Structures are given as C-alpha cells and as structure tokens.
C-alpha cells in the first residue's frame, strides 16, 4: 500500500478558527487563463476487491437510488472526480495511477487533485502532466477534543472536508488516491441530486477489535449474520461508510455544517 503523509487549517469564516490562525481560501492552480474546469475528453468504471458499482449506493433514501436524472439536468451540470494528496511521499504515484485509470476508462470528466501546501512543486507538475486539475487547499485541524488519535493519518483526513468548497462543480465523485479504476463509472453522476452516496463498510478490521461490533461479528452489510441484543448492548451502531469513495454535491453551507458538526461531535470510541 502507498504511504499517506498529511497535515491540516481553516478560513476566516470557519467555526473552528480559534484553533488555528485565519488562512486564505483555496485557489485553483495551473488553470490556463480564461479556461474553466470543463469536462475532458474521457470517461470511467471502478472495480476494486472491496467495491463494485452495483453495491455502491448508500442513500439517505435508498428507494431513490435507482432513479436517473433527465438528460436536460445532465447537460447543465459541471461534474468532476476529486482526490486528495498531502506530503512528499510516494502516495503521488497512486494518484497518477488513478488519473491513468480514469483516462483509460474513457471518463468524460476531469480529475481534481486537492493538495496541501506540503506537496512539492515537482509532484504538482507531474499531476498536471497527467491532465489533472491541481487545486491548493489549506489544512483543516480537528477540535482540541479530537487530537488524541494514534496516527496522524486520521488527523490529516479532516482536510478532505475542503472538497465541499469546490462549488464550481455541481456534483463530484471522491476517490482515494490508491483506488484503481478499471471500468467506466460516469453513470454514478446520474444518481438523483440531493443525496450523499457511499459504500457501507464493515467492522471486521483489527482497528475495530475493541468494539462490541467486532467481538460479536456484527456486519452492517449483512446485519442478520450476528444477533445484536439491544436490551444488553443498546441501539445498533450508526451507519458507517467507507470514506474512500463517495458521490456528493459541493456546497458552502454543507461545508460549514460539517465543520460545526465536527466541533460538537465526540470522537468514535
């Protein structure tokens, strides 16, 4: 696997400004003058060992998941894939692989790479050469009550919230930089608007070994495989999704709501 290296901040309007000094808003790098981030001449479909396009949908209202938008809606939308990169490590190779995979799958939409300031100029130029739109973002830091994570990897992920600021796009698909795309997944942009789509994760990884879910073999993907005794264990765990891939709609109000929620929500045990 490719190493993640990461760091994190916030804009003047961020509710967590008291944690870090004010910063300038993110900006788009390497965009030719006068050229908007319009879709490129390509198109993708993703397969990984853990994901398939048929199992991708976790909507707030699952019954809406099979409805498609009209052609007129599609034609008025600006869409794009987006990934995240931090540090000067080898993770840039994964992002290059992602860009190549989307291109090979003939995606019609661009890949935006949200980079933190510690990504070297050399790595940014490599991404530009791969046809990526490189966008500089400033770090987002967690509240003081959430800094006790064992690995900096988890802290750096707060900066991913910045992608909700990319409001020049109507809809985006986030993909971790170590995901490989083998088939076209552009059709996921056609899912009905107004919903967040992601893949339900399970609790089988060792990182969950301290939880009751792990101990009884509970899996939200197949909840009937293990009995959850609510009278003894309390309510079933909240829905948990894998943040390595999701479909979302950038929105400044949503971005600020997320920051507010992070500030008042206790970390998962």
From TrEMBL:
GO terms for molecular function: glycosyltransferase activity. InterPro entries: Glyco_trans_8, GNT1/Glycosyltrans_8, Nucleotide-diphossugar_trans. The keyword Transferase applies. The keyword Magnesium does not apply. Keywords: Glycosyltransferase, Manganese, Transferase. Residues 1-50 are annotated as: Disordered. Its EC number is 2.4.1.-. Residues 37-50 have a biased composition (Low complexity). It is an enzyme of class 2 (transferase). Belongs to the glycosyltransferase 8 family. This is Hexosyltransferase. The lineage of its organism: Eukaryota, Viridiplantae, Streptophyta, Embryophyta, Tracheophyta.
